[in-house]
Amino acid sequence: MSAHPKRLVTIRRPDGTAAAHGQGRGLNGRKLLAALGALFATAALLVSGQQTATADSNVSSASVKELTVDLSAKTKRSEGVGLGILYGITQDGLQPSDEYLDPLTINAYRSGGWYAGGWIKDKYTFGPGTQANIDAVIAEAKRLQRPPRHKVEYQVLLSDVFGSTGGAPANTLWPCTDGDCSNWITFIDATVTRLQASRQDFTYEIWNEPDLSIFWKPGVNTAQYFQMWDSAYREIRRIAPAAKIAGPSFAYTPERRAAQWQAFLAHVKAANTVPDEITNHDEGTVDDPVTVGQSLADALDANGIPQRPLSANEYQPADRQTAGDTAWYNARLAQSNYANAMRGNWSCCTIPNLTGLLTKTPSGWAPNGNWWAMRTYADLTGTLVSTSEQVGSTAISASADPAKKRAVALLGDIQGAYVGPMAVTFKGLSSTPWLVRDGLVHATVYRIPDKAPLYTRQVAFSQDVKVENDAITVPFDLESQHDAYGIYLSWTEPQTISLDAPTTVQPGSRYTVPVTFTNGGGQMDRDVRTSLAAYTPEGEPAPGFTITCAASGPPACPRVPKLASGQSTVVQYTMTTSADLPRGNYRFTAAATTKSEGQDVSVKNSVDALLQCGVGDVCEAEDGALSGGACLATDHPGYTGSGFVACFTSRGPSVTQRIVAQDAGTYSLDLRYAAGPDGPAGTRSASVSVNGGDPHQIPLPLTGSWNTWGDATIPVQLAAGINTISVSYGPGDAGWFNLDHMVANK
User: Fold this and answer.
1) Do the Cβ atoms of 369 and 449 come closer than 8 Å?
2) Could you tell me which residue ranges the CBM6 domain spans (predicted)?
3) Among 45, 222, 475, 653, which is disulfide-ready with 628 (CB 3.0 to 4.6 Å)?
4) Longest C-alpha distance within the chain, in Å?
């Protein structure tokens, strides 16, 4: 999602009507990708047999939906197409931590270091803005291309280094204006030379989304565009003859604008400037990767251009940022002819959000349902196998991996169009004898709720299933809209860990924290070791905590040599806080390792201990739990605390705080907010919900500018003890506000 309101860009649909303003990568950042969502909204690609529900009334729930996986029908090696990201790590390449990066086995990344304004800001010379962008690209590449991630393809957005990141100044000197490409060639020479000198491996993307005027004002497929393209292509070839060149990175697919693709391909063939990798975006409603990939291949054939790798270097639009949608896209990407694909970033960019796969909480960054959907998809290793692909609105992909002795399926529903009973039948088990024992297969179904934060998947089904007619059927319920599901046929699944940690801590106190590890698989676990640690919101070991084994005293509790199938071990830890423990938020993480079936298994789970405000305290919004695309910001002065919460520019974002009341009763809740001139005219509004109850709308009159803060008050009923108060942009609200803090008073 984008940052807070800063400037308003009106996008027109093909029919000329004004599009609704939404969230994108950059009302204050890299891009105004809300423009993409609006531009695509009326060009839906209707996948055969697919329901594209957008509201609860469209959700279907009838008889059992049946899906199939044929383990005997191998299709192709699993390459993890879709395990790429756009921006999502910090410009120094250091964050997020490896625990959130490594399990995803990311194989593609795309960035241009938009952070400093680039060549445009440097007044078309090599200055500090351009250097800063290049430094960021190199730092990110060094992080991503060191072992074991050394094969990550890094696509450099040269247009972002240049500074064309949406909303360029009116006086921008676009490359090759009036046929003069000299300054553009100087830029290409300076940038590519420095990137090549870093000895990192780059694919050079010449220009991003030239078919959207906010990124390329002179117009796509014009004489100026082709001069820009051809001159850049030839200069890159001269400097780095072995490097790959990618393009055209059109926002529209061949189904949307066939003539646009035809004109581009015809020109580059005639000019001998055909990119080595064909790139496009799958962010329309619905750009099915299977269909779009085939249309790209057909377009190459039609123009007599030999086939070459395809890259969906941005996929999944802003209104489909759910666990179920992520699983759907990954399932379809696995079955497509793309070589790689990168998840679009709608909550861009400098924060380490891994394209929205991580959620900022008061205790630090944490995985959400999207992360776990991608994490499950990363387990589709080995060889892909035939499936029913898409049944109605539900897609499924699966793989079999004899080296890991498992088969894994991932399924998701597009736009939450189906809830209800599911049944997945796995056929051809005689081709995978390593899965069958005494006529049984151990099956585990993980539910991945669309939730933030989400520290572990939920086990929805775990049983030994009898093989009949060379097949088993695994039943479960798709419980809620936007859930994703992973099904594992493996004797090592599931291994789970839980902890009963305090949700608040006080100085000079002692707590007993039971950590429970369960072997839910169908085999013996060996050498089970557990641990417990406390962390600060920055992910560092928290000072002021002493954690020991309650039974014996040493920090490391004794290992369990053997743990039989279905058994659990409970380890009691003692956690002592110092008298001078800093007042703040903390995260407690339990971890376990074991050897199972010759495989090294590790699992984690966490609990957040959150600082709670009292009645009369200023509760900073940025210290609350953010969800639905709400984002942190600091660029409008006058806020209290360390910043404020923004991105309330389309429905869904919310922030939740905890307030402790000594007595139950009616309190006044004051919201400090800003509502500037961008967005809908007139009074804005938000929804306030207490303890999960019905939302109540609060009017938020305009404050005149985004730098001017006002106050709005609403009565709320608080219970004695801890209360959760959520402020959101709900279905009936006007939204378009920034939230600084809240205060409850008697």
Assistant:
1) yes
2) 617-745
3) 653
4) 79
SS3 content of the chain, % helix, strand, coil (to 5): 20, 35, 45
Tokens of 313: 């270097």
What is the DSSP secondary-structure string of 422-446? EEEEEE-GGG-GGG-BTTEEEEEEE
Tens-digit pLDDT profile for residues 25-54:
222 233 333 333 332 232 222 222 222 222
Cα distance between residue 682 and residue 703, in whole Å: 11
Tokens of 459: 């086990």
pTM comes to 0.87
Query: Which segments in the chain show pLDDT lower than 70?
Result: 1-62, 350, 551-556
CA dihedral 627, 631, 637, 641 (to 10 degrees): 50
**How many whole angstroms separate alpha carbon 587 and alpha carbon 536?**
7
Q: Which helix (H) or strand (E) holds 711?
A: strand 710-718
User: CA nearest 420: which of 398, 388, 393?
Assistant: 393
Cα(610)–Cα(504) distance, integer angstroms: 6
H/E stretch holding 407 reads: strand 406-413
Distance of CA 691 to the CA centre of its chain: 27
Strand, helix or coil for residue 273: coil
Strand duo 721-728 + 738-745: pairing? unpaired
Scanning 7-114, the segments in alpha helix (DSSP H) are 34-40, 98-101
**Residues 6 or more apart whose Cβ sits within 8 Å of residue 698:** 671, 685, 686, 687, 688, 712, 714
The number of CA neighbours under 13 Å toward the Cβ of 87 is 28
Is residue 26 within 8 A of residue 33, CB to CB? The reply is: yes
Q: Is 166 left (phi over 0), alpha (psi -120 to 50) or beta?
A: left
Find out whether 683 and 700 touch, Cβ atoms under 8 Å. yes
Contacts of 48 (CB under 8 A, 6+ apart): none
**Strand extents, DSSP E, 152-215:** 153-157, 202-205
Which segments within 428-567 are labelled E, that is strand? 440-448, 458-466, 471-478, 484-489, 495-499, 510-519, 525-535, 545-549, 560-563
566 burial via Cβ count (<10 Å: 0-12, 13-18, 19+): exposed
**Quick check: 396 and 411 in contact, CB under 8 A?**
yes
Amino acid at 430: S
- The number of CA neighbours under 13 Å toward the Cβ of 343 is 35
- How far from chain centre, in Å, is Cα 204? 24
**What values do phi and psi take at 144, rounded to 5?**
-85, -20
- The separation between CA 732 and the C-alpha centre of its own chain, rounded to angstroms, equals 27
CB atoms within 10 A of CB 663: 11
Task: Quote the CA–CA distance of 377 and 84 in Å, as a whole number.
Answer: 12
Taken in order 213, 172, 122, 183, is the CA torsion positive or negative? positive
Alpha-carbon gap, residue 433 to 5, rounded angstroms:
58
Q: Is 302 exposed, middle or buried (0-12, 13-18, 19+ CB in 10 A)?
A: middle
CA distances from 16 to 10, 38, 41, 45 (A): 11, 12, 13, 20
> Measured between alpha carbons, how far is 400 from 380 in angstroms, rounded to an integer?
7
Calculated CA dihedral for residues 720, 721, 722, 727, nearest 10 degrees: 20
DSSP string, 132-154: HHHHHHHHHHHHHTSTTSTT-EE
3-state DSSP assignment of residue 270: helix
Closest CA to 54 of 325, 290, 355, 252: 325
- Can you tell me the distance from the alpha carbon of 141 to that of 156, in angstroms, rounded to the nearest whole number? 10
Instruction: Provide the Cα torsion 474, 476, 481, 486; round to 10°.
Output: -40
